[in-house]
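It is worth pausing here to work through a concrete case rather than discussing structure prediction in the abstract. The textbook approach is simple: state the sequence, then state the predicted structure, then interpret. We follow exactly that order.
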Amino acid sequence: MSLNSTPAAERIHIGIFGKRNAGKSSIMNAITSQELAIVSDVKGTTTDPVYKAMELLPLGPVMMIDTPGIDDEGELGEKRVKKSFLVLNKTDIALVVIDAATGASKEDLELIARIQEKQIPCVAVMNKADLISKDEQKAVIPGVEVMYVSTTTKENVNELKEKIAHLVKTDEERLRIVGDLIHPGDFIVLVVPIDKAAPKGRLILPQQQTIRDILEADATAIVVKEYELRDTLANLNKKPSLVITDSQVFAKVNADTPKDILLTSFSILFARYKGLLTEAVKGVKALEGLREGDKILISEGCTHHRQCDDIGTVKIPRLIRQYTGKEFDYEFSSGAEFPEDLSKYGLIIHCGGCTLPEREVRYRMKCAVDAGIPITNYGIMLAYLNGILKRSVEIFPHLSMLLEEVDYS
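Step two, the predicted structure:
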């Protein structure tokens, strides 16, 4: 992956929802001007969410998601409906496609209410507008903009694109990974171990994105391996403003970085970037109160081949055992999987979430908070286990009061 390509997690996710045969796939094809989804008069043609990453003007990089009908029937149909609702957790903009000839049904209105509850920008797309007269195009749905569109005549398709574009967050509203914490001309040292888990011939996604963000801030990124850090710092003519490390080598990097230089990790930066940081810092302390045999969920946003010393399934459980002297019952989830019932867990430890959209990370965090289950992430946990959490979040002034209230040393 080049530094210029846009990861899926950074794309605007546009979810297309509605009943069977409302024309969801046709709307997707019309918006993209491509035959991405199969169109048929047979109900239930779309049986699984269909994802397509693409450039969509005037939006830029987007992820289009065509979903199964929300009125699907039978045991299999219920599973498809459930998958459609799960897509809402990663949706930035929702299009609810409604057959203009029949109007909004009870299911459509219930779906829109669910979307509004999740505070997702939404447009009710009245499809097949060519089948009714202009005088009949008068639907009103409280709190939602209604647009009449025809995929047959292409009526209002371009207007729908423009409407979607206006619902997207502006650059000023979007968080930065690190760019807002540094200044033009700063030196930032990134510690990047090259081990078996690193993809052949390239850096992992959080490292790529952080480097790009540093460059966009007109600062200088200096990338070293963990065994080169001490000499690099000694040979620099200018003190770096910040050292960012892979969490797996936190202890060594902490020892090699002078105390007057700020230190954090990629995972901690991504906890903030995805909206998890404050809860992650609060949640990590729950480790102290866990009893022998309590369940801990370790959840990763991506799916990958497990290495022999995998950070989530091996390293973190080992370090927790060394720190607490206790044996816990670990369960693991990955990719789109995230347990619906969290009540059995004493703690959730999530990855940095670099492959997940911000909305999905926030959804998982909210699920944990609503269930009263502490949640933290890899970087915060590793900093805590190494006794350097205070130092690793010092760059975030808003956490100072929280750290003073609870002993995190």
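Step three, interpretation. The CA atoms of residues 181 and 396 lie 8 Å apart. The two ends are 39 Å apart (CA to CA).
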